[in-house]
């Protein structure tokens, strides 16, 4: 590799990170392993190009081939998700959500999203985020049972009259009822945005309800269950308003133009063409029949892992999962989320501490951990493997300070991972 000569320190850190990824069990539900083809596109010479604008309407010359790349990415996204418009330029999920706010509402308008401490995302109205600093954010929690309470959400919307309602989460183990959200948004005249970043791969596989044709705007990152490069897309239907010279009025009719203008020139400069190419490759992969099998297996694995953990007396928020993730409530284990995350890290099992609904502890050291199966499933693991994963978790967390247990589990995990080589 060139980098070994050019920068031995970075080369060494990449090598060690690869080893960590290969020898450990990646349980963070938002992480995955991109294919070598996706990574090749991401590391390609396309990183050298500037191409502000959109295909065939650029502010720089020399974009003949970049236009081809972005056309392919957009066409594949439109076909895969059955929409008339796709913007593939957002640098990642947070900027993509920022573009949606910028496109649809005005500073000071009321927006509504799921509360971060109950599983929602920062950009859905958390108090320190732009979404609550520039907009008047109201947040809906889950019910006591950990499930979204749609009647309560409808009531809150009726009281607060938001102009934009977000559905989506980073730590919600159940399926979203997009149709119910659309009804709530319609009843108060709000735009409805679905942030499906976590579950896109499941939607493609047909094992999770789809927001397409239901939500006004859909945002997804491309690196989670979709298994592409880091990046994001905004998908919608409507007519482009061009050749209007002025920005169109904010209406559902002109969503494509509103979104495109919000992304560029509203928020971003030059798109990351290498990232666009990698997204195109990932979309082609997601269009293959094998991807549906993959998405379905993610859910089977998550359910199998849930069963094993329940058998070992773990408490799961909502009692289980419908999707790719589990939220483990550690209150009966005498451990905080941070302690559990660290104990698991010592044995090569990577997860993240997470708040649980109505968490009695502080957000920085909450009561839960969030685990998921997308990355393990990419390695080819099946339900019977999840039993082993669950047992190692149970063993480790039953003896978090026992060096001999730690040593044994670490060795077992490492040996097991050798059967699931991915790169
Ligand atoms: N950090 C992502 C996640 O882990 O869900 C969301 O941005």
Describe the protein in words:
- The chain has helices spanning 2-6, 8-23, 36-42, 64-81, 93-104, 130-133, 150-160, 178-188, 200-205, 255-267, 273-286, 289-311, 337-346, 374-378, 383-398, 403-417; strands at 25-26, 53-54, 57-58, 85-87, 110-114, 136-140, 164-167, 191-195, 217-221, 232-236, 315-316, 325-329, 349-350, 352-354, 368-372.
- With 423 residues, the protein is α/β, with parallel strands linked by helices.
- The chain folds into two domains: 39-286, Type I PLP-dependent aspartate aminotransferase-like (Major domain) (Aspartate Aminotransferase, domain 2, 3-Layer(aba) Sandwich), CATH 3.40.640; 290-417, Alpha-Beta Complex (Aspartate Aminotransferase, domain 1).
- The strands form four sheets. A seven-stranded mixed beta sheet has the order 4-10-9-8-7-5-6, sandwiched between helices. The chain has a four-stranded antiparallel beta sheet with strand order 11-12-15-14.
- D-serine binds next to loops.
- D-serine binds at residues 30, 93, 121, 170.
Name the hetero compounds present.
D-serine
Query: What is the CATH class name of the largest domain?
Result: Alpha Beta
The structural domain count equals: 2
CATH superfamily of the largest domain: Type I PLP-dependent aspartate aminotransferase-like (Major domain)
Number of strands: 15
Identify the strand order in the major beta sheet.
4-10-9-8-7-5-6
Largest sheet: 7 strands, mixed
* CATH architecture label name of the largest domain: 3-Layer(aba) Sandwich
Shape: globular
Report the helical percentage.
Answer: 40-55%
Binned strand content: 5-15%
Helix tally? 16
Question: Over the alpha carbons, how many angstroms does the gyration radius reach?
Answer: 22 Å
Our measurement of the CA-to-CA distance between the termini, rounded to an integer number of angstroms, reads 16 Å
Looking at CATH, which topology of the largest domain would you report?
Aspartate Aminotransferase, domain 2
Which consecutive residue ranges, at least 5 long each, have pLDDT under 50? none
Mean pLDDT: 97
Structural category? alpha/beta
